[in-house]
Amino acid sequence: MNILKLSISIAILGIIALFFIVQYNNENIVKIKDLKIGQIERITGMVTSVYVSKNNHVFLTVADNTGEISVVAFKNSNIGTAYELENGDQISVLGKVEEYKGKIEIIAKDIRKI
Question: How many domains does the chain have?
Fold first, then answer.
């Protein structure tokens, strides 16, 4: 009987934890127009251009329904996914919002295909 109560309690705690994890992940997605310099933000959008430099840095343009932004995945960031991306891919990007030559960009820490 005690094992049954313990099992039910653990299952309920697991479901509650999953609920909060899902809520946390969805709330942190920011629209491109709302990005703030200096913040670490997550965006989702479509890849509209991909360029790999001679130094193996990946430069992307990502668009959502509010605008577009440059995303940089430096070689030393070890984001293997960046090298597999193509125009039209839907992705999620986590990174630091920076300003470079008067425009905002994201220095990627994580890139995932959706």
Answer: 2
Burial level of 107, CB count in 10 A (0-12/13-18/19+)?
Answer: middle
The domain in which residue 19 lies consists of: 1-29
Report pTM. Answer: 0.75
pLDDT in tens, 43-94: 999 999 999 999 999 999 999 999 999 999 999 888 888 999 999 999 999 9
- Enter the DSSP assignment of 29: B
Residue type, position 80, single letter: G
Q: Are residues 21 and 61 in the same domain?
A: no
Quote the Cα angle for 58-51-60, to 5°: 65
The phi, psi pair for 104, rounded to 5°, reads: -85, 150
The enclosing domain of 81 has a CATH number of 2.40.50.140
